[in-house]
Amino acid sequence: MSFHKIIDSRNIKLFTNLTKSKGNYLFDSKGKRYLDMYGNIGSLPVGYNHNRLHELNLNSPDIKKLLLHRPALGVNPPIEWKEQVELLYKNYCPDGLDFMYVACGCGSGANENAFKAAFIKFARNNYSDHTMETRLRTSLDNNEPGSPDLSILSFQKGFHGRTLGCLSTTRSNAWHKINIPAFKWPVAPFPQLKYPLEDNKLYNFSEEEKCLEQTEKILKNSKTIAGMIIEPIQAEGGDRHASNDYFIKLRQLALDRDITFIVDEVQTGVGSTGKMWGHQYWSDDKKYLPDIITFSKKMQMSGYFCKSEYKTDSPFQTFNTWMGDPFKIILSNQIYNIIVEENLLENSINIGEYLMDELFKVENKTGRIRNIRGKGLFIAFDCDNNFLLKDRLIENNINIGTCGNQSIRLRPSLTLSQKDVDFFIHKLKKSLL
User: Which SUPFAM superfamilies does the UniProt record give (predicted)?
Assistant: First the structure.
């Protein structure tokens, strides 16, 4: 039976020759070479076939057994797993968070379980006057107090996944949501900044203050909001930014009301912005550290870091059969080594600045692109027809993606070089003709 009849393949643009692809260049099944500025939807941290990844000898007994047997890590983990988990925490966890959960499957799963952790903490603090017997009994019928009527506040144009809870907080694309039931959870406005930032300081400040006032009003008028979730950069919604001051004030609103502040770092995490985590730009004051930070994509696994108070009451409240993949933890730890050894956070900043400078030159010369914005290599720009430009770029050997209604998003690996940027700019100019 035909491949295209047995699965939905409408989103597949090309088949990748993973053997031949190297560094930042992808080869398709026909041998065509592309500079990959899409990076497997931002999940390719160090390019294709990095030599240091190949040092993980897949035929070694220690790794081979993890590929041949996928253990149920929640009950019978392999001996080596404990050491790798501790190393992962040491490598990636932001200072000030002391617990992590690494068994969510994808970004949606990470956010979904973060919601559960927020709900459980809120109920623990606010529903203790009901007996445990009553709470357990009513929970089976989806009734209060065991199944409390709580919500997560999200923001316009945000994207947090496609499972039911996450989809209820996703506001970026109606096609993701149509015909699917959703929780009637609140939504707050997210600032729509004007560019260039230097020329629009007064407008952008006023826009952020207006959004904060409306968010505060929503919080004041509800006693059922257990937490809020936000992205450091709204990626799927169009690479929408806000100032550090905005995020600090938003964090303070959550602190004032003792609700969980969840930062969705699925896209911005692991170096794309020039810092390991995008929220690290906001403040060095640990007072403003998020309660929960979710991750996936470049981590090669999904989960969240949090404060220990978000440990659930029962271990089976956030549980599944596999509870993660032990090999992916090994892979993630090796990726961390590469990031450190090759100074890839610094590379993300330096090459990102060079790329943005070159994009500004294209804007000034052609007038065909605008609103260039980014941090590190997490960059986007607007154009009149982003889908048409994407198709032209793909024709011209650039693998790339869109976001929002008019944006091209750049999601290269952290190893992108100046030579790669020059190649991209050359092809962009050609595609704009």
Answer: PLP-dependent transferases
Give me the residues paired with residue 35 across strands: 25, 398
Catalytic, 264? Answer yes
The average pLDDT across 340-346 equals 99
Amino acid 217: pLDDT: 98
37-63 burial, b at 16+ Cβ within 10 Å, e below that, comes to bbbbebbbbbbbebeebeeeeeeeeeb
71-339 folds as: Aspartate Aminotransferase; domain 2 (3.40.640)
Catalytic residue among 297, 298, 375, 427: 297
Q: Angle at CA 104, nearest 5°, toward 55 and 150?
A: 155
Task: Compute the half-sphere exposure of residue 389: CA atoms within 13 Å on the CB side of its CA.
Answer: 23
Set 131, 134, 224, 321: catalytic member: 321
Kindly tell me the burial class for residue 131, based on how many C-beta atoms sit within 10 Å of its own C-beta (0-12, 13-18, 19 or more).
Answer: exposed
Catalytic residue among 264, 291, 325, 382: 264
pLDDT of 57 reads: 87
Residue 189 has pLDDT above 90, yes or no: yes
201 noted as active-site residue: no
Domain range summary for the chain, segments of one domain joined by +: 3-53+343-432, 71-339
Q: Residues 27, 115, 122, 159: which is the catalytic one?
A: 159
Question: Is 1's pLDDT higher than 70?
Answer: no
Average pLDDT, the chain: 96
Q: What pLDDT is stored for residue 2 in this prediction?
A: 87
Q: Is the pTM of this model over 0.85?
A: yes
